[in-house]
Amino acid sequence: MNAALPQSLTPPSAADAHFPVVIVGAGPTGLMLANLLGAQGIETLVIERSNNTVGEPRAVSIDDESLRTVQAAGLIGEVLPQIVQGYGVHYFSWRGKEFARIEPQSLEYGHAKRNAFRQQVLVGQLRDGLQRFTHATIWFGHSLVKFRDEGLDGDAVHLELSHAGASKHITCQWLVACDGGRSGVREQLGIALTGNTYDEKWLIVDLLERDSPFRHTRTYCDPARPAIRLPGPAGTLRYEFMLHPGEDPDSMLDETLVRDLIRAREPGDAALAITRTVVYAFHARVAERWQSGRVFLAGDAAHLTPPFAGQGMNSGVRDATNLAWKLAAVVRGDLHASLLATYQQERKPHAWSLIQMAMRIGRFMQPKSVLAASMAQVALKLCSLYRPVRDYVLQLKFKPKPRFHEGFFLPGENAGAAVVAGQLLPQPRMERPDGSQVWLDDMLGHDFAWIGLAGAVPPEGLGLACRRVRLVAQQDDFLQPDPHVDTVLRDVQGTLEGILRSAGANALLLRPDRYVLAYLGRPGADDGQLASLIQRYAPARVAAR
C-alpha cells in the first residue's frame, strides 16, 4: 500500500492555514474519523509524520461494530471484498485435542461479529476514501512539533508543524490526537496512563500463500507454549507464540527457531514465506483524561488493549464513531461545545470494560501449568452442556455491550427494554415499498433519526436535524404514502417492533451514531425530559431565545 500519493493528498498552499478539525495520525482511528467528518461536510486536515500509511500488517480482526462504522463512512463496498467474514475460534488443549469452538452466527449489527482483515489494506482504503471529499486533506511527511491550546474560552489551537526541515504554522478549532500509544500530544498535555504493562511477551509471525483453506482461528492453550494461528484474507496467515520468562526477544526472531515453532503446530505452514516477525509486550492502560480544552485523545493515544480479544483497533474505531458526529454538530453550530464532554463519559468506561475482557481471555489462553489448563478446559466443557451458558459463550454474548451509563441520552428509563436508552440499536434488514431490502442505516443518513410505528407522530421543535422513518410492522403491509415522514420501511424480521414493544413505546429517537437517545410515546411519559436534555446542549444562539 505504498503507491505514490494521489495529488489530492499533497499539501495545499500555505493560504489554507485554518481548519475546523485537525487530526494527528493517519492510522485506522484517525482516518476513520476523517472519513466520517468528510461524509458530514466538515473541513478536516490529517497530519502524518510518515510519507504514507503503514505498509505492514498490524491488527488482524475487525468486528461487526467497526464494519457498521465503515458502512456509515460509505466504504463498505470497498472493504467487504477484502476481508474474511464470520470466522470463529477453535480451542485446543495441551494434548492437541479440540475442546471448544466459538463460532458466532448473529448479525445483530448487520455484519458478522468476527472478521479477518489486513490493517494495511484498510488504512489504504480509508486514505483513498478521502479523495471523495474536496474538504478533507492529508499532509504526509508533517510532524507536530508543539501546540498551544487557547482552551474553551478561546477559539483556536495553534500548531507548529515541521515538514522537509521547514516550519509551518496553522490553527484549528479542535485537535484530535490519534498518534498512537506513545502519543506526543498526550505527553505534551501531561496526561498519564493508568493500568499495567505485562511481563509476558509474544512473538508475531506473518506469512503468505498458505495452502490450508481452514478459515477459523486455532488457539493452543498449552502451558508449554501458548500459541495462536490466525488465517487471514488472500492467503495470509499469522502465528502468535508466547515467550517464557528469560527468553531473549531478539534470539526468538531467528528464522530457524521461528519455523520450528510453526512446524510444531502445523507442519504444512513451516515452509511458507515469512513477511514479518516482531516481539511485543501487551498493555492494559487507559488515559486519565481524554479531553483537555480543545484537544482530544482517541485510539491508542487514549487506551492500550491486550490483543487477546482483538479489540484494540476496534476500540479506536468506536472512539471515531462517537466523536465524529459530535464534532460535526459543534462545528456546524447545531449543538453546544459542552456536548463534547460526553465523549469521555461515554467511551472511557466501555473501553476499559473491553480491556478487562481481554485480560480475562488472556488468562484463559495462557495457563501457567497443566493443572490450571485442565481445570479451565474442563469447566468450559461443562458449561457447554447447558444451552444458555453455551450460547452465551459461542455467540460472544460475554463481550460487553456497546452501552453507555451516562452521557447524551435519557438514562434510567425503560429498564426492561431489550435495548435500553444509551445502547447501540441493532441493524436489521428492512424492506422498502418496492420490495427491495436494505440495511437500516443506509436509509437514515448522518442525522438524528426518528423511527415510529403506525399512529406515532414525529415530534416537532426538538431543534435537531432528524430523518423521520415510519416503521411498518412485520405482519403488516404498505399502504398509502405517509406525508409526515421521509421514508417508510417494513420490519421484515420484527426486530425493531420487538424492541419498541419491550420498551412500552411506539417510537424512538436515534443519535447519528445509532445509539438510542430516547423512547417516545410511552403512557404517562414526561416528554419535557427530552426537550430539557436537548436544550442543555443547544447552541448559545438558540438557548438564549
**Unreliable residue runs:** 1-10
In round numbers, the mean pLDDT is 88
Report the principal-axis shape.
globular
State which percent range the strand residues make up.
Answer: 25-35%
Quaternary: single chain
Describe the protein in words:
The protein is globular. The strands form 5 sheets. Strands 1, 2, 8, 9, 10, 11, 17 and 18 form an 8-stranded mixed beta sheet that branches. It is 26% helix and 27% strand. Among the domains are: 7-83 and 112-192 and 288-360, 3-Layer(bba) Sandwich (FAD/NAD(P)-binding domain); 429-543, Glutaredoxin, CATH 3.40.30. It is an alpha/beta fold and 545 residues long. It contains 13 helices and 26 strands.
In short:
This protein has helices spanning 28-39, 64-72, 76-79, 119-129, 184-189, 255-265, 312-332, 342-365, 370-383, 387-394, 495-502, 528-536, 540-543; strands at residues 18-24, 44-48, 61-63, 84-85, 89-92, 98-102, 114-116, 136-140, 142-149, 157-163, 166-177, 193-208, 217-220, 227-231, 237-242, 273-287, 291-292, 295-297, 303-304, 429-431, 437-439, 448-452, 466-472, 487-490, 507-510, 516-520.
